[in-house]
Amino acid sequence: MLVQSKPYRTIWPHADNREVVQIIDQRLLPHEFIIVDLHTVADFAMAIKDMYVRGAGLIGATAGFGMYAAALHSRDDHFDRDMQGFANTLVATRPTAKNLVWAVERQLMALKDIPSSAAKREKAFEVACEIADEDARFCKQIGGHGVEIIREISRRKNGAPVNILTHCNAGWLAFVDYGSATAPIYEAQAQGIDVHVWVDETRPWLQGARLTTWELKEQGVPHTLIADNTGGHLMQHGMVDLVLVGTDRTTYCGDVANKIGTYLKALAAFDNNVPFYVALPSSTFDWQICDGVDGIPIEERSGAEVTMVSGLSDSGLATVAISPEHTQAANYSFDVTPARLVTGLITERGITKADRESILALYPEKR
Ligand code: MRU
Predict the structure, then answer these.
(1) Average pLDDT estimate for 50-64
(2) pLDDT for residue 152
(3) Range of the domain at 320
(4) DSSP-derived secondary structure for 7-23
């Protein structure tokens, strides 16, 4: 997507040296646009864990390139053992996004039967690029399917702006390009459908306030930033036509893990008859787990992300305390919205109900 009118992806091999991979440091957005070089598996692991990169699709793509770095640094005589060690390092970085383990396993499977280390390294690069390209393509396809929902609402409103509420950042910064929840919005804009987006700030990391607003501004999509607790009020007053969010892991029975606070938006949407859609590429499905509340691992991050806030001050970027010193803080990073609250899932293959039979009908090979 565009940054000051120039197209970017969120991750790409360096133009002069493909052994170096470049990313946008999302910790500094929207105030600074800095590109960072990744060389070693430790660099990739740090970038994922410390959230230089974040969002399910981009975590997966970064892990895909991380496994290429792993192949470059695995010794010829201990190749498979070294690769497995590097794979474990990457998988341990963040527990909730399914795309992470999915990408690592895809690399290990692809390299398994290749005889020489040189050929394995070549293949690892190919697969990393494939994962990134596929992520971008699937998000584009999600846009093509999801726009039909927005068009139908616009038709019912005689062309008045469709008000969409989104939580966190499931935009292009959370993927390689386009985004999942934002792809239908960008497609609607391209087709001349009027949209307006309510952006939840998304405490504590503020993905909405910092990233989704920046993305929408760069693309020229009308939007309004709201405090996290505002959505229910807006829905009661008919000011939200559609809730559209992403997901970090969705079970094959339709339970959806997404950024903390999503469940409360789903409850409010259900109570007010507002459609609640979740957009995801198939790499985010967990084909092993049915009950998401019970089965999906929920990341707990440092309490300091809750007690401190970072932003731009007159003298540059600053971090300040917002609670008394030594306040104990809990930081559950995700919650699970049960399938019964989800109107539908928008995937690269089309839109489906959030239940086992419908999901498996769309992905029959997973039966
Ligand atoms: O902690 P993050 O920023 O990696 O969380 C991911 C998210 O941005 C959201 O949960 C998002 O809605 C789903 S990721 C496509």
Answers:
(1) 98
(2) 98
(3) 143-366
(4) E--SEEE-SS-TTSEEE
